Each structure stands twice: as C-alpha cells, then as structure tokens.
C-alpha cells in the first residue's frame, strides 16, 4: 500500500533521509582503515628515524615533463591504487567435494611394504575374475614405443646429442616411414629443435617429419623445452620453457600438443596440471610417485583421476572443464622391465634389443612360429594384469627406456618381433584382445571412448601433489628422494638470478622495441633485432636448466659445470638486453621522430648493470663507483612491477662523503656502511652506500650521487660494534664510523613494526616482538649439520645417520658485527669456515620495515669432513603441532602433516619461495630466494637445508657423490604476523599480502645500472609505462616478445602479457598501515603509456590458442590464484 504525503512533507522527508545517509558515510569513513598518507607515524620507541613515502618526488628540470610529473603525482600515491574498493577481505574458498584428498589420505598409506611389489593374491584374483569378462569387455592394448633423452645427466647436453639423440631422431624418420603402423612420441623440444635446424639442407626429411606428425605416427607430447623438474623449479621458469617449446612448434611445425608426458621427475607437483591445462592440454601421464600411492590407487582402480585445483572455479563443478585427466603409471619405472606388467622377469622376455658388446638384462628370444603361442600367452597375461588395474580394461604399455632406439637395428628388432606377436594375438579371437602400436593420444582417445560408451564408473577426482617420492625397487627398503630438493644450491640460486634478470630483460625489450617501432628509427630497430638473439639464448639456457637432472643438481660434476656455463652465457646476454633497452628508452624522444647519427650514438652514455660476475660460480659483486666531484654519478633503477615499490638500493663507492638525489633533485635518505676486509677489520678503500628508492610502477628512475662536505658531527654516521674474544683492534677507532662499547646484554634491532632480539654469545636470533600488537614469540635460530648415512645420502636421496643425526657447526664462539644506522641496521655473525649470517631491519614504514631480512653465506668446500648437510632451524613457541605449509613452485601453498611413524627424511618437502607455521595467535613465515628441502621436525619448528657435502653415491645411477660445493648466498625474509578471526574459517592456504610483497622484492629486486660516459644526449630522467598502478595482488609474470609467425628467430610486434592474480589469506592481520588493506570489488588494470596497442587477445597460457578479444586492458578480469595470458600487439 502506498502512503501519500503533501509536497512539502515529501521534501522534508527527502532532506532528512539525505542527512541520515551523510551521517552514516562520515561514521563509516572514520572507522575505515584509511592509508596513512600524512607522513605521520606512531612512536614505537625507536631510536632511529622512520622514513615515510613522499608524494612530491618526481620533478624534472625540463618544461616538457613538468606537466607529466604533476599529473603523475595525483595518480601514484604511496600504495597500489584500485578504483573500487571494499573493506572486506574475501577468502579464496577451498574445494569442498573431492574423492581423493592427498593430504588426508597420505597418512593412512602403507609405508612399510613386506615386498618390493604390491602385486599379491588379491590383485591376482581380481585379474582372473576380469579375464572371464573379456568377452564382454575386451582387453585393448596400446603399445607405445618411446625413448627418454635426458638433456644432460651422465654426459652433457651436447655430448648426448652427438652420441645418441641425433641417431635416434634420424632413425625415427627412416623407420616410421618404413613401418607405416609403427608409432613414436617425442617430448624434449630442446633436442628436437636443435636437430631440426641441422636439417635445413634436407627439406625432404623435414617434409617427411611433418607427414609423420600429420598421419598420427609421431606425436609431440607436452612440447616443453625440457621435461621439467617439479620440485625445485619455479612456476615462472616452468611457464617460460613451455612457451619456448610451444612457440617453436607452432612456428616451425604448426603443431599444438594436447597430451603431456612426465615420466622421470622425482615426484609430481600440483602446479604442473594447472599449467598444462591452461596451456591447452587435455590429458597427462606421470610415472615416479611414492610406492605407497601406487599400491593405494591400484587397489581402488583409481590410477586415473581428474586432477583438480583447490582454488579453480571450474573445479567446483562436475564438468571437469578446468581439470586434466591424469594417468599414473602403476609400476616403478618407464623401462620395459617395469612397465609391461607386474612380473619383471616376464617383461624382460619382451625387450628384443640386442646390441653386440652391450651388457643387457634382456631374456628375450626371437619370435618364430615355434614359440609365438607360448610368448603370446605370457604377453597377454602381463597386459591383462595391467589392464585389470583400470575399470575400462585399456592397457598402455611402454616399450623404451633412456636413450633407446639410438641403433637402427633396435627399431627392426622391436618392431618385427612385436608385430609377429600382435598378428598372432589379433588373429586368435579366443584371446579377446585388440593390440596395436599407438601414441599417447591414441591411448587417451580409447579411454575416453570406452568411458563414454560403456557408461562405467567415471574417474575419481584428486586434490594435492605427490611429494615426497619414495622407492623400494633398488634394495627393498624405503628410500626417500628428498635430498635433491637442496643439492647444489649455488646452481639453484644462480638459476633464480637468471630468471629475475631475464624477466626484466623481456619486459624492457618488449617496451623498447614497441617504442622504437612506433618512432620509425631504423638504427634503434636494428639494434633491438640484434638483441633478440640474446633473449633467445637466455630463454633456452633457463629452459634447459629446468630439466629434472639439472636444477635438481643430480648430474655429474662436469655436466653441472656445463649447465653453469650455459646459464652464465644467458645471464651475460640479459645484462646486454637490459642495458641497451634502457638506453634506447632514456635516450629516445617519446614525442617526436628524430634521426640519430653515429656520433650521437657513440656519445650516448653507457649503462652498466651493477652485477659483476667473472664466472658462473662467482658470488655477485658490485662495481666500485668513482663519484665525480662536478657531475656526480648517475644510477638508473628499473622497477619491473606495475605498482609502486620501495627499495633500499646498494652500491659501492670510494668516497664515503656523498648525498643522493632523485630525478626531481630532491635528496633521499642514504646511509654509508663499512666494508669488512677481515673478521674484525674495516677497509678505508671502499664503502657501501645504501639509499632509499621510491619507484613508480613499471618505471625507469634516475638517481644521482654527489660528493658532499665531510660531516663534522659524527652522530649522523652509523654506529658500529664488534664482539670478539680478542681485544678490539685500535685501528678501527680511527675510521669514519662511531664505535660503541661491547654490549653486556642481548642485542636488539628495531624497526617501526618489530623488535628482534639476538644472543650476545651466539649472535643469532632469540625472539621477535610485534610492536603495535604487543605480541612476542621466542624464535631461536640455529645452524646445525645432519650427519648423513654413508651410501644412503647422495645427490638424490637423503637419510641422516640414525645413531647421531645432528652435529654442531662450530666448536667456538662467533665474531659478531653490529651496525646501527638511520636507514638500516644489521647484525652480522661469522662462524669461521662455516657460515656468515646477516640479520637486517629497515627503518621504513612500508613492507620493508615489517620483517627481518636474513642473508647467509656458506661454503662447505672448506670443510674437511664429508657427509654433512647444513641446515637452518627456527625453534619457536608457536603451537603449530604437526602442521606446516610449503609452497608449490612459488605458485600456491600446500598443507603438510608431519608423520611420526615414518622416518625424518620422509617428512621433508620442497620449498621454492615460502614456508610457514601458525597457531591460533600468530603465523611465522620464512620466505626464500631459491629452492630448499624443508620440514617441521617438531611443533613450533621450521627448518631448511642449506647445502650438502656427500662423499658417496646413493645407487640411483649418478655414480658419484656431491663434492663440488661452491660459495653460496641464501637469502630469506622472516615474518611474524598476528592471526585474526574472520567471518569464514574456510580458505585455501596462502601468504599474506605482506608475504607476497616481500617475496616479490626478494625474488625480483629492482635492476640497478650505473652510467658511464657523456650525458650530452641524455634526454629523460624518468619514465613509467602505465597510466595508473595495477592492483597490488596482480603480479606481472612476464611481457615476452613473440617470434614472427614464419621465423622463430625473428621478433614480432606482439608480446605475451602474463598476469597472475595472487590469492592472499584473510586470517592474518596487516600491521603495515595502509598497505594493500583494501580489496577491489572489481579488478581494474591500467592502460599502458608511451606504447600504442593495436589489439589484445586472451590466449591459452603459452599463447597458442586464442580465447577471446579484449577491447582494452581495463576489461581484463582474473579470479584470485589464476594465471591469464594475453597477446598484446603493438602498433
């Protein structure tokens, strides 16, 4: 019913209503969590100043840029900006319905089998029963010839190509062309492309290869550059090697893989199925999983399953739109011996390879009329037993092994003998068996067809991963492949360094090439085309190292050396690309076309990336800058993230009396620290300059170091303390710095948000205190050794000595240095000949001020003892019980449960970027810069293995220990955060937004470049490529230039824009005011600046399949946790 009011009454009611709304808005605003933009900060009783971000930091001297900077000031506030916000944190809800939850089922598995094979009478009875039903459900067998060519292991990549791979591929073309019903599969594009390039003068062979692919005899599976490791590899590099392979296939062969093949990685990640499905894969095959998982799934006929993601929206329904069908091989390995059925001695009777002079296990005899029926009966028996493990009664049988088919005669031996058996079996209808050669695609096609036509039980759904990998096939007792999570950490760290530099090179190159193309500058364009080769070399070096015997550290010592040289060549190339691209962008006039003569080109300044390494195994060093008294020294920083970031940049200088200004000529906070020439001596030859860099989104920013007058008041200089057993060297007191008396109490480092306390005896962490929340946690840091079991711990395996598993790292007290400054304070603890660890806090009001940075340097090569595994343990008072969390390839977090009924080594998991423990009150997070093995050995503990020095082989094929230890830097951030109650307790495990921010800074630091030469033609001090910052939860994975459609070695005008919208926990309370505390109700991206975009298309992950056209970047929407790829074509 409507109520009627006079006109004046309606007006009065309207005014009252509007007044009430206004009052509500005021109340909401005052109670909301508003970012601190005023520059004020709460006093946390800190004795050092706290630096706040300034809005007025980017002005230019030239009139052309003044209006731009004024406009930018209003856009770029201190934090990433979104246009629409909601104060509510929306959790990423976990999957609710799944048949097999790995985390829940894993503790119930049979970890102590009574025999090597799980095949027992129960399995045999099921096979016998199934065989009686073959008349209604015939056995279908797909026999799959394959080879497994490791791109490096016992030999180098190049040696393997010369001695084996080239012969395999040449024989493949000849024999597949000869035997029209023979099939083959190939996975490693690193080898295939190398071989193809050497066929340039053999067009007929290239045509034959394409014909074999088109008629279905040859299938390219996965199509990655390598068969990637799934434990130590980061998802960025996983994607990159997949793109490299897929783009080569598209450009060269017009091939689009749809089935994935992963037979040799040592355990399988839950991230890989997501990436494969996103790249367009429909099915996948995996091999190496824990022996207990194979038994469990075989018992339930669940060796094939829909592999789901906890966060994927498609996974919430039953359509399996976002899932991938996974086939787990039922038996131990991918050789003929282990794959034809449960009885290995019978399987060895069907390996027909016989090479003169070669030692072999084979027990095969040539098939003839006299023995064909007997051998067919045996073969059908094994294939039938294999088929009985699956509800559809289709068996996939592998015929191959490492580097098989390298001799032409093997092709004839295998084909002719199997063909006789096939003909006999298919002709004898009483067998009720249909058998043929086929590809992986043929198998899955048959499986889907049977499941659909027979309407039998659908495959189950599975959530989780398959780590750790354990075997019993070698000696009958469980062995755990958890050592390789850490093995050869220097290579693992250098790989991540290359990944970071290559990512920056890719982004800068794409932008610079687009700008140069639009300007029509032929000289610069030719320069960019030349630099594309450097990108290709670096991409392929990084891709090659993702191989499951490379990043794992499980190759021969000389092979690891070869990998290191290839990585180093790629690394040097990325530095050239970055320097050239930045130079072109800062030198180019963005508004007007201009010609550049040779003189101008030669007089432009040279940009030198500030990372000096002489060899791949050298620790990174910085160039020592000689600051000019007149012009100063210019430094350029590149922020590769599409939102604001704050970093403390570090350079080395000879003159300590300097100041630093930004591109607006405003002085920025800086601090000069001493350099230690020995454990207790400071050099006066060189100093470390730290300065605060506020970097705008996706930008190049210039800072200038100027000489200043010597300070009379030494209070502004950092104070230095040294704790040693011997007397303090008196020469230290004559240096630039203030020296304090030795502390009689424990040492404290304070930032605006936390206080870290250290033992004056050990120099190691004792506790962390969150200041604003008044939360203290006892957190002791310890460095210890595991004493490894001889012949049981090697490159692959880890097994500590059961009698005395843990040893102390040193028998003496350490040397401790304490530096307390106004920008950064740090404590450095040195245990001679073992490890040097620096703990660092920043006196800043952003993310850098909210955690404890840890850098540790170690070199086990100096140790005289062997079979030692150095690890760092955090012992806290958090009641985490038996639960801890580790990341999966830096992409998502996974819950782990420590099981006390299995050995210690079985409770280790791979960590690529993060691990954490928590209780109802607090969370303790450790962020890492490279891969480690990690566990929680008891409640409140978290530990990571740093390095391993092993004298003996572990009998997994390598044939040597690990004795080539190198000096290594491991870099961490440690966060203590308060837990909070939320409206919903159900969310997937995730880092906090602070955790994501510091992890990004840790893994992708800003690129620092120094100027060398004349600045006469230097045109721009500052450049940003986004009109507005992206939301803070959108990670720019890459902006990667694509090859042309017809030439893989030439750059096109298109780039793949890959974005990952990171999920974050709602259970952790942010203690950094204003940092990313508001969440967008609708994601809104900014358009790009300085580059003209012709078109944007959303594609599959690797850019092969076009999904939809995007009118503008603002239209892009990505759900939390998802990775999307867009093909951006520039004008």
TrEMBL record:
Q: Disordered: where is this region? A: 38-63
Name the top EC class: hydrolase
Where does the record locate the signal sequence feature?
none
Q: Which cofactors, if any, are listed as required?
A: Zn(2+)
User: Record's superkingdom?
Assistant: Eukaryota
On cofactor binding, the record's note says: Binds 1 zinc ion per subunit.
Q: Name one Pfam family in it.
A: Glyco_hydro_38N
Recorded E.C. number(s)? 3.2.1.-
List residues of the Glycoside hydrolase family 38 central domain.
Answer: 479-567
The UniProt keywords, alphabetically, are: Glycosidase, Hydrolase, Membrane, Metal-binding, Transmembrane, Transmembrane helix, Zinc
Show the stretches that span the lipid bilayer: 12-29
Regarding protein family, the annotation reads: Belongs to the glycosyl hydrolase 38 family.
Matching entries from PANTHER family are given as: ALPHA-MANNOSIDASE (PTHR11607:SF70)
Indicate what this protein is called per its UniProt record.
Alpha-mannosidase
Which source organism?
Limulus polyphemus (Atlantic horseshoe crab)
- Name of the gene this protein is made from: LOC106465597
């Amino acid at each position: 019913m409507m109520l009627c009011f006079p006109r004046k009454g309606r007006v009065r009611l309207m005014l009252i209503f509007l007044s009430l709304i206004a009052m509500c808005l005021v109340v909401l605003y005052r109670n909301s969590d508003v970012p601190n933009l005023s520059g004020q900060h709460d006093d946390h009783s800190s004795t050092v100043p706290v630096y706040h971000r300034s809005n007025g930091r980017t002005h230019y001297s030239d009139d052309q840029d003044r209006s731009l900077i004024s406009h930018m000031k209003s856009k770029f506030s201190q934090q990433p900006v979104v246009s629409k916000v909601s104060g509510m944190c929306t959790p990423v809800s976990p999957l609710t319905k799944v048949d097999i939850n790995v985390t829940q089922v894993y503790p119930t598995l049979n970890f102590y089998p009574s025999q090597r094979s799980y095949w027992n009478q129960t399995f045999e009875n099921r096979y016998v029963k199934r065989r009686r039903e073959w008349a209604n459900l015939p056995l279908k067998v797909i026999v799959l010839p394959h080879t497994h060519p490791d791109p490096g292991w016992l030999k180098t990549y190049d040696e393997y190509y010369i001695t084996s791979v080239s012969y395999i591929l040449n024989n493949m073309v000849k024999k597949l062309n000869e035997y029209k019903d023979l099939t083959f599969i190939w996975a490693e594009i690193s080898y295939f492309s190398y071989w193809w390039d050497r066929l340039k003068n053999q067009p007929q062979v290239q045509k034959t290869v394409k014909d074999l692919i088109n008629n279905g005899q040859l299938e390219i599976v996965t199509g990655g550059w390598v068969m990637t490791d799934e434990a130590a590899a980061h998802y960025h590099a996983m994607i990159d090697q997949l793109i490299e392979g897929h783009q080569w296939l598209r450009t060269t062969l017009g091939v689009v893989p749809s089935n994935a093949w992963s037979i040799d990685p040592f355990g399988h990640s839950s991230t890989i199925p997501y990436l494969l499905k996103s790249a367009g894969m429909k099915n996948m095959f995996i091999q190496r999983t824990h022996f207990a998982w194979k038994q469990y799934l075989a018992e339930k006929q669940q060796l094939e399953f829909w592999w789901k993601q906890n966060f994927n929206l498609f996974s919430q329904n039953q359509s399996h739109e976002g899932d991938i069908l996974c086939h787990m091989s039922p038996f131990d390995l991918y050789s003929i011996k282990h794959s034809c059925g449960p009885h290995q001695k019978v399987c060895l009777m069907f390996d027909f390879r016989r090479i003169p002079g070669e030692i072999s296990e084979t027990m095969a005899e040539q098939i003839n009329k006299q023995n064909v029926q007997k051998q067919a009966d045996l073969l059908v028996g094994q294939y039938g037993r294999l088929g009985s493990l699956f509800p559809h009664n289709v068996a996939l049988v592998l015929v191959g092994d490492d580097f098989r088919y390298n001799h032409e005669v093997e092709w004839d031996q295998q084909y002719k003998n199997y063909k006789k058996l096939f003909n006999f079996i298919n002709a004898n209808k009483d067998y009720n068996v249909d058998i043929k050669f086929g590809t992986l695609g043929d198998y899955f096609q048959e499986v889907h067809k049977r499941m659909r036509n027979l309407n039998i039980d659908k495959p189950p759904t599975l959530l989780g991963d398959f780590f750790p990998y354990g075997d019993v096939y070698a000696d009958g007792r469980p062995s755990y492949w958890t050592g390789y999570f850490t093995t050869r950490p220097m290579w693992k760290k250098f790989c991540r360094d290359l990944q970071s530099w290559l990512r920056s090179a890719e982004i800068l190159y794409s932008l610079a090439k687009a700008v140069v193309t639009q300007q029509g500058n032929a000289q610069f364009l030719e320069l960019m085309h030349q630099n594309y080769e450097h990108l290709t070399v670096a991409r392929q070096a990084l891709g090659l190292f993702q191989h499951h015997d490379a990043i794992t550290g499980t190759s021969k010592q000389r092979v690891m050396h070869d990998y290191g040289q290839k990585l180093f060549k790629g690394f040097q190339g990325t530095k050239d690309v970055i320097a050239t691209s930045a130079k072109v962008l800062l030198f180019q006039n963005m508004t007007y076309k201009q010609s550049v003569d040779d003189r101008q080109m030669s007089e432009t300044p040279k940009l030198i990336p500030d990372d000096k390494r002489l060899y791949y195994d050298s620790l990174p060093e910085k160039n020592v800058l000689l600051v000019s008294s007149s012009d100063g020294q210019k430094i350029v920083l590149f922020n590769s993230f599409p939102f604001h970031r704050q970093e403390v940049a570090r350079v080395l200088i000879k003159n300590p009396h300097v100041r630093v200004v930004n591109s607006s000529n405003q002085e920025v906070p800086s601090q000069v620290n001493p350099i230690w020439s020995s454990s207790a001596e400071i050099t006066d030859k060189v100093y470390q300059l730290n300065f605060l860099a506020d970097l705008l989104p996706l930008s190049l920013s210039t800072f200038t170091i100027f000489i200043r007058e010597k300070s009379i008041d030494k209070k502004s200089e950092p104070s230095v303390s040294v704790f040693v057993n011997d007397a303090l060297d008196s020469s230290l007191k004559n240096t630039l710095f203030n020296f304090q008396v030795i502390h009689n109490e424990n040492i404290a480092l304070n930032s605006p948000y936390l206080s870290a306390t250290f033992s004056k005896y050990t120099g190691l962490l004792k506790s962390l205190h969150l200041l604003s929340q008044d939360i203290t946690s006892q957190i002791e840091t310890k460095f210890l050794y595991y004493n490894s079991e001889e012949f049981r711990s090697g490159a692959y395996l880890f097994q500590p000595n059961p009698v005395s598993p843990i040893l102390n790292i040193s028998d003496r007290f350490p040397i401790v240095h304490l530096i307390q400054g106004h920008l950064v304070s740090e404590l450095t603890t040195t245990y001679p000949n073992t490890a040097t660890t620096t703990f660092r806090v920043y006196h800043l009001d952003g993310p850098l001020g909210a955690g404890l940075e840890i850098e540790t340097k170690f070199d086990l090569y100096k140790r005289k003892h062997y079979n030692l595994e150095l690890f760092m343990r955090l012992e806290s008072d958090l009641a985490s019980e038996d639960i801890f969390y580790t990341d999966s390839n830096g992409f998502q977090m996974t819950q782990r449960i420590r099981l006390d009924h299995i050995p210690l080594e079985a409770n280790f998991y791979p960590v690529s970027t993060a691990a954490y423990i928590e209780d109802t009150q607090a969370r303790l997070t450790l962020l890492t810069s490279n891969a480690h093995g990690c566990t929680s050995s008891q409640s409140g503990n978290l530990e990571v293995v740093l390095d391993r020095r092993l004298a003996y082989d572990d009998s997994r094929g390598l044939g040597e220990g690990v004795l080539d230890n190198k000096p290594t830097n491991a870099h961490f951030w440690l966060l203590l955060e308060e837990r909070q109650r939320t409206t919903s307790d159900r969310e997937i495990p995730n880092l906090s937004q602070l955790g994501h921010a510091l992890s990004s800074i840790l893994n992708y630091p800003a690129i620092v470049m120094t100027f060398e030469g004349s600045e006469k033609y230097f045109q721009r001090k500052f450049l940003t490529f986004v009109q507005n910052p992206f939301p803070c939860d959108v990670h720019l994975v890459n902006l990667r230039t694509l090859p042309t459609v017809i030439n893989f070695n030439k750059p096109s005008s298109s780039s793949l824009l890959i974005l990952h919208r990171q999920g974050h926990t709602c259970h952790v309370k942010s203690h950094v005011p204003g940092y990313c505390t508001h969440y967008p109700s609708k994601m809104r991206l900014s358009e790009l600046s300085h580059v003209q975009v012709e078109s944007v298309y959303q594609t599959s992950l690797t850019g092969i399949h076009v999904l939809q056209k995007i009118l503008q970047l603002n239209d892009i929407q990505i759900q939390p946790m998802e990775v999307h790829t867009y093909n951006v074509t520039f004008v």
